[in-house]
Amino acid sequence: MKRLKIIGLVLLVVLVGLQFFPTGANHSTTIPSTDFVKTYKAPEDIAQMLQTSCYNCHSNNTEYPWYSRVQPAGWLLENHINKGKEELNLSEFGSYSGRRQQSKLTSMISQIEDDKMPLAPYTFIHREARLSKEKKKTLLDYLKTLQE
């Protein structure tokens, strides 16, 4: 029993100690001219869908949930955001070459059609990010108009 108390105390100290190592912030106060919405002058409904369903992981402006300040959950979330931005950064979309933009558009369409994006674990917590059939069709139709 004494051993369990010691293990529990050590785990508690470690968990509390982790809280002193916060994650970096992926939050910008400006929307650059290279942002997807500005680059393509997206209609308001499309911009809203992208903001709600894509921008938290795929832009330079993440709206962090409360649990992002609790480690190690914050580190896992930050890692996920960094990987998402490496794959596609909607804040920098306009700076991509024309060929890369077309490739990313094709990938976006494919992943939305295949229900791979937005990710199921993300929409489980962020229900507002779910795309209804109508919204999905509207977004896909719009993205397809951007393909050359």
Please tag this protein with its features:
55% helix; 148 residues; mainly alpha; elongated
Record the SSE blueprint.
Elements: H1 2-18, H2 36-39, H3 44-53, H4 73-87, H5 98-113, H6 120-125, H7 133-145
Can you characterise this structure?
By secondary structure, the chain is mainly α. Helix content is 55%, strand content 0%. It contains seven helices and no strands. Helix 5 runs antiparallel to helix 7. The relative contact order is 0.14. The mean pLDDT is 89.
Relative strand content: under 5%
Coarse shape: elongated
- Average pLDDT taken over every residue: 89
How many separate helices? 7
Low-confidence stretches: none
The main pleated sheet reads as: none
**Helix amount:** 40-55%
Distance between the termini: 69 Å
Question: What's the Cα radius of gyration?
Answer: 19 Å
Element-level helix/strand string: HHHHHHH
Short description:
The chain has helices at 2-18, 36-39, 44-53, 73-87, 98-113, 120-125, 133-145.
